[in-house]
Amino acid sequence: MTNRPRRLRRCQLSVPGSSEKMMTKAAALDVDFVFLDLEDAVAPQEKRAARKKIIDALNNLDFGRSVRCVRINDLTTEYAAEDIIEVMEGARENLDVIMLTKCMGPDDITFCDKLMSQMELKLRQNKRIGLEVLIEEVEAMQRVDEIAAASDRLEALIFGMGDYSASQGVSIADIGGDNGYPGDIWHYQRQRMTIAARVNRIDAVDGPFANFTDPEAYREECRRAMMLGLVGKWAIHPAQIEIAQDVFSPRADEVDFARRMRAAFNDALARGQGAAQFEGKMIDIASVRIADRIIERAKLIGM
Ligand code: COA
Ligand code: MG
Questions:
Q1: H/E stretch holding 155
Q2: What's the pLDDT score for residue 67?
Q3: Helix axis angle, 285-301 relative to 252-270, nearest 10°?
Q4: Are 194 and 204 in contact (CB under 8 A)?
Q5: Would residue 208 be called left, alpha or beta, if left means φ above 0 and alpha means ψ between -120 and 50 degrees?
Q6: pLDDT digits (tens, 9 = 90+) for 226-250
Q7: Domains with residue ranges and CATH for the chain
Q8: Taking Cα atoms as reference points, which of 26, 54, 21 lies closest to residue 240?
Q9: What is the average per-residue pLDDT within 248-269?
């Protein structure tokens, strides 16, 4: 077993690393997780300058309770290694997690893990920086089990439906929307990735939804992901944060019910019973496992 830090990822806000204004705005928002982007939100000619802006933001802004992450360019680009080196060196302990894009297989995770370990040694840094990875290529989906198991530094898998659509040949009008497919077009991919994540005790997170002026459609996508066991969804705009953090939190009555059930089951066990009656229904250790997960989530959220 590893002792990975437990972090909230109900909402991961994407912020272009080239925009000081948006990074300043993001720092002041009440969001579980902020990632400052060096990849697609930054034009190629801005990439090097964006690294400096991101380091400044991490060192000078107070991000409050938010996890601070930087999304780096993929390993086929000229930027990736220097993204890791410069950001780790510049921000040191003001950084919590690095996010890798367009992972193609477990070797990519191993590469990042080793480079990050070298940097932690060089910087004499005791704080271990976490790693998470986007599953957004068919190659990654095919090997998602190996990827999820590749390093104990890995904390989360994220389904990136934008690039994934292009990779699989799915035609959608806008990222996160559907194309009239009968049913949920991402059902299989979300299931597949979430199972791989859960086997390795790491988080599964749902990617972006581009139409930030359609809160109802966004909420529905959050709900679909939440019901399959994903723990959160990306936001690309501040308007999406509250919705995701709401959907991915257990309701107060659910938490209360789970705690009552746990207590009732403990009493039953003390009486020597494995199955018991609780508020008119049967409970046993399986019901209590579900309840315990809700209790654990509630504790992490501070409910
Ligand atoms: N992070 C922080 N602040 C953001 C933000 C974000 N992702 N998106 C918008 N804002 C800010 C705006 O700067 C604006 O601030 P202001 O009121 O102080 O002027 C406010 O929120 C309202 O924004 P709005 O005017 O509605 O949108 P916009 O036209 O400024 O921005 C986008 C729209 C799509 C360009 C912007 O949301 C964005 O760049 N999102 C992130 C894109 C991204 O990261 N893509 C890669 C991952 S998929
Ligand atoms: Mg992508």
A1: strand 154-159
A2: 98
A3: 130
A4: yes
A5: beta
A6: 999 999 999 999 999 999 999 999 9
A7: 11-247 (3.20.20.60), 252-301 (no CATH)
A8: 26
A9: 97
Nearest to 66 by CA among 144, 17, 9: 9
Please identify, by atom number, the ligand 1 atom nearest to the C-alpha of residue 39: 46
What 3 state SS string does 138-207 have?
Answer: HHHHHCHHHHHCCCCCEEEEEECHHHHHHHHCCCCCCCCCCCCCCCCCCHHHHHHHHHHHHHCCCEEEEC
Which amino acid belongs to residue 43?
Answer: A
The confidence band for 60, taking pLDDT boundaries of 50, 70 and 90, is very high
Q: Are strands 11-16 and 154-159 parallel, antiparallel or unpaired?
A: unpaired
The one-letter amino acid at 268: A
Residue nearest to atom 24 of ligand 1 (CA): 237
CA dihedral of residues 71, 222, 235, 184 (deg, nearest 10) = 70
Distance from Cα 246 to the centre of ligand 1, integer Å: 20
Nearest atom, ligand 1, residue 14 CA: 44
